[in-house]
Design a protein that fits this description.
Number of helices: 10
Radius of gyration: 18 Å
Shape: globular
Low-confidence stretches: none
CATH superfamily: NAD(P)-binding Rossmann-like Domain
Order of helices and strands: EHEHEHEHEHHHHEHHEE
Distance between the termini: 44 Å
Amino acid sequence: MNTKVAIVTGSNKGIGFEIVKGLCYKYDGAVYLTARNEERGRQAIKKLENLGLKPLFHKLDVTNETSLQEFAQYISKHHTGIDILVNNAGVLDFDKPITSYEDSKRLMDTNFYSLLTISKILYPLLNDDARVINISSDWGLLSNIRKQHWLDTLAKEDLSVDEILQFVDDFLQAAKNGKNFYMSFAGHYGDYKVSKVALSALTFVQQREFSKQGKNVSVNCVHPGFIRTDMTNGMGDFTPERGAHAPLFLALEAPQSLKGTFVWHDCHQVNWDD
């Protein structure tokens, strides 16, 4: 019951799987591998068990509020809270550099909007010195955005969640209006870029809120590198195992005083809004 708890969303393969593996080796606590597809999740668990590791599994679809509530109830029943939460679940259609409104909205549901539901349902379970790690991207740097209004707005010290929502809505409206509007916002893969810029901005806003509340929770985002995964059609600079390096640093090694930062794949901090 008093065991520490680490949770990694979308972790049946890729970087998420490697983060779970690293936590199983190094973390003194229960490590939850989660996936929306139970069969794939169980297969991933089996792979780790074959290495002598003992991860736990729970089905979780981050885009489904009921699924998140069921998971929260399970954690509340079996544990005293959450100590590490890695928001890793994410999608990208690498074959579609320009996507329809419908595809863009689906991507936002997983990559960004789910974080708002997670904050509502899972954040109340965070223990006082918990660590939240949001998996971002170099495409999550503010400089990927081409609209001056949003460059100025998102860089504000007093940025609000509502303004981030307006930013995402503005992009989705551009996607609805057609290719030229889509491209003018953030270029190719604009949906993914906007989702990760929004995730990064949300990281800083949420850290500010926790600090205002006097809680010692740390919230950071990280660019894990350009990783060779199914999502990138096997293209990339690093293996998924190497991609887990910086997220594991934030989960296990970084000082708790490291808060509200954007961390590069080599574990150094970068200025998000340069």
